[in-house]
Amino acid sequence: MLYLGFTLVLATSGLLLLLTGRLALRPLLGAAVLLPATLIGSGVLRALWALRKSTGIGMRRAVFAFSNWLSMSWTVALACLQALVRSEGVFLRTPKWRGSHSIGEALRASRAESLIAAALVTLGVLVAAVRRSSLFLAFLFLWQAGVYAFALFIAWLNVRADLPARLERRQRTEERRERIRRQRRIVAGAATVLAP
Fold it and tell me: Which pTM does this prediction carry?
């Protein structure tokens, strides 16, 4: 939820800078950028250190694990928001289709995150192009876009991976369940239309 909140604040700041040319609060200029820059840098280093220390994995795998954490930020925020408005339910994010092992399939799996990342990059470039931001603000746009772009990267790794037999059976079960759910909606809709 924090990443989603930060994304909204960053996007709003960028839009205000583009539309009005100024921002009432300017905390990202001069020496004031040292604190957020230090927090981001130390947060990444602490996460990588904790992954390596607790699991015994190497730096490369720790970076992949950290990327996976970041890639889940939209999914976790969506699950939290749904939990606020639903009294019951299970939130599962599993592939509901089987397709080719291509970047297109990965884009389809991470379309929301990819759109958010593209919007943030575009907004960051526009704000930087009209010279209404500091270099650090441009970095924040790129960092936040990267958080969401990691979902595309992880989705691409996932579509290229071969599933173990147990997970392959689970994927087929999920696909069958989704197909039945769609058929029930169609039957319910047809019954509603045809009912006198």
Answer: 0.64
